[in-house]
Write a structure and sequence with these properties.
Length: 150
């Protein structure tokens, strides 16, 4: 058994509708309450707009729409999870943050090939207390170039 197979993975879990998803804690910069986003013309439907985060323009994505689910309505009961990947930041609009999980890496199972309509967005699956939790692949979800685009 290799040393890597013994490593634990820390994940931030959150809810979209009745489903649980998570991202690696290392990519989470902060968790914010709902802030109305300024819409952008011609943006994809899953891009709610942008917010000003301490002087940085941050795109906000409706993660439900990005994953092919029914969109979630704006409102004070929503949460924005600010994530960063390869120097690009974005806010992911979710229903609620659930928990921080520490899971042995060996418990993360690859996604079965079922003709999934959201290919690449889910990196792995795991069972936690009898509930299926999806680990997201941020590189497939994040906007290309993000706020660094000139």
């Amino acid at each position: 058994m290799s040393h890597d197979s013994l490593a634990d993975v820390e994940l931030l879990s959150f809810r979209l509708g009745e489903q649980e998803f998570c991202v690696e804690v290392a990519s989470v910069r902060e968790i914010r309450g709902w802030t109305p986003a300024t819409p952008l013309p011609f943006a994809p439907s899953h891009v709610k707009g942008v917010i000003n985060l301490r002087g940085t323009i941050l795109p906000v994505l409706d993660l439900s729409l990005r994953l092919g689910m029914e969109g979630i309505a704006d409102g004070e009961r929503k949460v924005i999870v600010v994530v960063q990947l390869n120097g690009v930041s974005a806010g992911l609009m979710v229903d609620a943050v659930s928990d921080i999980l520490t899971i042995p890496a060996a418990q993360l199972q690859p996604l079965p090939e079922l003709g999934d309509d959201i290919p690449g967005c889910i990196r792995a699956l795991t069972l936690l207390e009898g509930q299926l939790v999806r680990v997201l692949n941020l590189s497939a979800i994040m906007p290309p170039g993000g706020s660094r685009a000139a």
